[in-house]
Amino acid sequence: MSAHQAIKIGLLTSGGDAQGMNAAVRAIVRTGISRGCEVFAIYEGYEGMIRGGDLIRRMNWESVGGILQRGGTIIGTARSPGFRTREGRLQAAENLLARGISHLIVIGGDGSLTGADIFRREWPELVAELYAAGAIDAETAQRHTFLAIVGLVGSIDNDFAGTDMTIGADSALHRITEAIDAITSTAASHQRTFVIEVMGRSCGYLALMGAISGSADWVFIPESPPETDDWQRAMCDALRIGRENGRRDSLVVVAEGAQDRNGNAITAQQIKQVLEEHLGEDTRITILGHVQRGGVPSAFDRWMGTLLGYNAVEEVLRTTATSEPRIIGIRENRITTAPLMKCVAETRTIAAAIANHEYERAMALRGGSFSEAFRTLRTLVQAKPPRPGHAPHPLRLAIIHSGGPAPGMNTTVRAAVRMSVDQGHVVLGVRNGFQGLIEGDITEMNWMSVSGWATTGGADLGTNRKIPQGAELYQIARNIERFGINALLMIGGWSGYQACHKLFSERHIFPAFNIPIICLPASIDNNLPGSELSIGADTALNSIVDAVDRIKQSAVASRRCFVVEVMGRDCGYLALMSGLATGAERVYLPEEGVSLRDLQADLDEMVHWFKRGKRLSLMIRNEKTNPVYTTGFMVALFEEEGGSYFEVRQAILGHLQQGGNPSPFDRIQATRLAVKCVEFLAECAAQGRTDGSFIGIKGGRVQILSLEDLPRMMERDHARPREQWWMGLRDVAKILRQPPT
Ligand code: ADP
Fold first, then answer.
1. With a 6 A CB cut-off, is 168 part of the ligand 1 pocket?
2. What contacts 182, CB < 8 A, 6 or more positions away?
3. Confidence of residue 1 (pLDDT cuts 50, 70, 90)
């Protein structure tokens, strides 16, 4: 054997299947090939490793084509009792060594990853034993003295310490949210109560986030059982008050592992009984079950799975005999690695804490944003309408939109209104953006005026890109005085930030502008400073991914190149991330622009691959990449020059990207940020402060910055922030686009 033999990487999915595993599989295979490795898929998890034969197959670039949009895992997964035995693992080692595999990437839950670690620790002994038994030769034994393993966590439950999200959790949340939306739309017309049971084993993530996203009225999670033994009464009181105030439907979400403080299970059936007995409500139970594992992966699971897969290969190639095995995860919006067994141990500690009734500990171990989400939900469900004037420093809070419509705007307004009303503030809704503030188109909002807004797309208050100028500022100042507005919450995009900055910087001329102002980022373009993500961007990404899935399906019969134009204005976020999530070969970004020479090179590359049997090519172009080389121009160029090799079609996705009901992620972030904004404005009022600020999420945490800093955070002449975290992901997109020539 030559010393320059390619490294052989084995790859398996194990344990429960989860949407997004295929994205990781695809990225692992293609990154491995690009790095000059041979990649083997081990079908049916550890069972395939033990059985060997055709269950361990060498993959090529094409074997993972067209799988990004498929749920589950194309290489299969299984539980393998055999792998729990040393005998089984010895057989597995023999099968790997027969193919020269001693690098392994395992996608699975804590069980699967523990199995991998046991295998790794035993490996030298297993090799020695196989050599002694004559099953492998001396050279094989010497070449494979250690097993390099890397883990990715695939689990819909999101129950793993060491990563903020597991592969599949976001898609499961999509299924839960879709189901809740469908169920509550009938509940509203029948005045019923629904109890929905969601999965998660001992982790309440899906229940909690599903409850926020579906605007449930009560939730039960394993980590934080009801504080009183009389949970029945607490729940019934909250639901009754809601009803008395006009709410038509009631929704209770219960995690499958929910329990009371004594460790007794709280089941959907019990909840139904309580509601029927105490409230006399017609109550229906829906147990979501395996629906949550089904369906297409969400945009997030596709791009995250892709990034995790790419990084897993990099990590496994770095691994040496002495390195501690690691998992690749996502932390605070960045791909990170963490020690595998430490994460497994922590994961098990949380489960043990729950089993031992140590609930504070379990909540603390889940991490800050989990507890914060729980507090937010509790605040919202316990908010009791209406107690105007109860606050010691009551706000007369004006809420206004500005910019293009973004899914999640309504969700944000609802949360802000209910929080404010609960705390005794008065909320004034400004219609049609800053135009409405100029014209005095302002009405008081109450608890019920935002009923149903949690789940609907669009912006019911109306929005546009008006930025007030000159005399209009006088009119705004007059209306602020006339309506007694003493705080302003702007939920919107770049024009809103500019407008608020304008009011802020003209305070010396208009004393009326001396009120606390805060901007909340809501724009599908994700082009706002101070926040890594803006409300609406995740929904838009899902809309794009969905549209591209359909477009790809339309091309089964011919050789075709699609040029898909997406929105984003001066910001390439949607283009790049949808490119990663759909497997586009080429992504055109306004940050990079495009030259004729680039287009010529792309064309040559396409011709090269179509000549070799390629059937479909996907290019994603941001709308403002280049004012001259438009989408139409590119299509004409490719069509003319591509000639007989392929046809070209364009798809300008347009406004469908701004529509649709907000995704679970957008609903959750919208709720989270709205609650923070109201708290911040109330704090300003209490302390007599008049901060001009904008809120955002950075590194998974909420931050509030001063409007003073706004100009320096933006790029000159372009409506995009100077710092864009996702630009670092461009390399991955490049590596996965074509096989190395
Ligand atoms: P998950 O990976 O989703 O937690 P399981 O706990 O069922 O799912 O584990 C999947 C497979 O991983 C098991 O069927 C078994 O083959 C392997 N496995 C789990 N735990 C161990 C262990 N302690 N030792 C060896 N193999 C294990």
1. no
2. none
3. very low
Report whether residue 47 contacts ligand 1, using a CB cutoff of 6 Å.
Answer: no
Domain extents for the chain? 8-166+297-331, 169-293, 396-535+662-726, 537-660
377 touches 675 (CB < 8 A): no
Best residue among 83, 91, 167 to mutate for probing ligand 1's pocket (most ligand atoms within 8 Å of CB) is 83
16 in ligand 1 pocket by Cβ < 6 Å? yes
- Is the fold of 8-166+297-331 the same as that of 396-535+662-726? yes
Cβ neighbors of 680 (< 8 A, separation 6 or more) are: 516, 518, 691, 693, 695, 704
Residue 75 CA to residue 10 CA, distance in Å, equals 12
Which helix H or strand E contains 442, and what residues bound it?
strand 442-445
How many C-beta atoms surround the C-beta of residue 390 within 10 A?
A: 12
CATH number at 8-166+297-331: 3.40.50.450
Compute the distance from residue 316 Cα to the ligand 1 centre, in Å.
Answer: 21
Of 397, 630, 410, 632, the residue nearest 517 (C-alpha): 397
From residue 428, alpha-carbon distances to 37, 488, 679 in Å are: 62, 9, 17
Supply the mean pLDDT for the chain. Answer: 94
Instruction: For the domain covering 537-660, report its CATH number.
Output: 3.40.50.460
497 lines ligand 1 (CB under 6 A): no
**Residues 661-684 pLDDT 10s:** 999 999 999 999 999 999 999 999
**Angle 358-359-363 (CA atoms, 0-180°, nearest 5)?**
125
As annotated, the active-site residues are 157
Task: Tell me the pLDDT tens digit for each residue of 601-635.
Answer: 999 999 999 999 889 999 999 999 999 999 999 99
Our CA angle for 475, 481, 483, nearest 5°, is: 100
pLDDT beyond 70 at 385:
no
Cβ neighbours around 320 below 10 Å, total? 7
β-bridge mates for residue 285, sequence order: 195
- Looking at the domain 169-293, which fold is it? Rossmann fold (3.40.50)
Domain covering 396-535+662-726: architecture: 3-Layer(aba) Sandwich (3.40)
Q: How far apart are CA 496 and CA 700, in angstroms?
A: 24
